Amino acid sequence: MVRAKCRRILGSGAEADEVAQDTFVRLWQEGPVQGAPHTVTAWIYRTATHLAIDRVRQRTRARRLAPEPPAPSPHPGDAALALDRLADRVPQTQLAAVLLHRVDGLSQRETAEVLGLTDRHVRRLIAAFDAADEP
Amino acid sequence: MTHPSPLALDRLALGAPDPATQAHVDACDACRAHVEAVCAPPPPMSGRIRALRRPRARLVAVAVALAALLVLVRPAPYVGTKGGPTVEVWTRRGDEVARWDGAPLHPGDSLRLRVDPGPHRRVTVLAGADVLYAGAVDGPGALPTSWRLDDAPGPERLRVVLSGGDQPDWTLALDLPKEPR
Fold first, then answer.
1. How many Cβ atoms from other residues are within 10 Å of residue B177's Cβ?
2. Alpha-carbon dihedral A117, A118, A122, A124, rounded to 10 degrees
3. A30–B contact, CB cutoff 8 A
4. Choosing among B1, B5, B7, B157, which should be mutated to test the A contact, i.e. which has the most A CBs within 10 A?
5. How many C-beta atoms surround the C-beta of residue A120 within 10 A?
6. Cβ under 8 Å to B: A residues 6-25
7. Strand partners of residue B130
8. What is the DSSP secondary structure assignment for residue B170, as one 8-state letter?
């Protein structure tokens, strides 16, 4: 479940597996390991999404600083390519909401629950993203 | 057909009842496959395996150099299913290195794990909530870390998690009895 979630965002390369492992480790270190399924799944979706965004941001910053660009992921998906483009210019919470809603396919209510926001807040975040993304 | 979200399917797979999602899954091959993939149990295993329930924070007193344990003196049987991932426990007491035979360990003994990850690409070793090791693996071999047992009473409990690759995560809980020095 954790790996599948990460691969939806990052594609099927090693980066997705590394983020999945980081998520799993955090679950054991500080997550609701013994919690109810609703609690555990919300925690996993929230944490994996934020870790994926952080990972892509680190990579894009390193790319800017490095004399040679690092090799791209061997299996980037559409979402991974989009995330590369968006990671540095979209605020964290807004990007997490967009990824959960548009890539993971969660409803706005589910997205709000995972992120601990109100439905209305999620609607605003996605509307602001769409408005900013228009040419 | 409108499918439930992956979140709803994952929750159903983890045991959260949801009649509407369950009814959809019963009628939808794709969603049923998603749930079955999440529910897929790890391969059956033999050996001294028990569920790990309580956190232990005192397993690692000192991470010791591992050169001696690199010399694995004999091939050892695996703990696991044929062709699947395997985990071996190797111990060092003084100058004696041996594959763990199930006998109680002593404080001061060093432990090292030799892992055949099968189709997986990453390994994580936990003692309760403490991550003792996490890293990539590209084939069978000893992990580049060993641990010395402290004198805390009670068994040492480890969990080895193999992830990555195309197979479901694989987990092994090791319960290592320990007796006073």
1. 12
2. -120
3. yes
4. B7
5. 10
6. 8, 14, 17-18, 20-21, 24-25
7. B127
8. E
pLDDT in tens, B63-77: 222 222 222 333 343
- List the strands of the sheet with B141-148, edge to edge: B62-64, B141-148, B110-116, B86-93, B96-99
**Cβ contacts of B8 on chain A, cutoff 8 Å:** 110
CA distance B134 to B111: 16
- Per-residue tokens: B38: 């999440």
For residue B112, the one-letter residue type is R
CA distance B169 to A23: 13
CA distance B159 to B129: 10
Whether the Cβ atoms of residue A49 and residue A99 lie closer than 8 Å to each other: yes
Tell me the per-residue pLDDT of A75-84, one tens digit each, with 9 for 90 and over.
Answer: 456 666 677 7
Q: How far, in Å, CA of B112 to CA of A5, rounded?
A: 32
Report the pLDDT value the prediction gives residue A65, as an integer from 0 to 100.
53
Q: CA-CA distance, B91 to B100, in Å (whole number)?
A: 6
Query: What is the ipTM metric for this complex?
Result: 0.81
CA neighbor of B116 nearest in space, from B139, B135, B132: B139
SS3 (DSSP) at B127: strand
Query: What is the Cα–Cα distance from A64 to B62, expressed in whole angstroms?
Result: 40
Put simply, the chain A residues between 81 and 100 with a CB less than 8 A from any chain B CB are none
Residue with tokens 């111990």: B91
State whether B15 and A114 contact (CB < 8 Å). Answer: no
> B5 and A1 in contact by Cβ < 8 A?
no
Q: Alpha-carbon Rg of chain B, whole angstroms?
A: 19
Token pair in block for residue B32 = 């049923």
Dist. CA A70–CA A80, nearest whole Å: 15
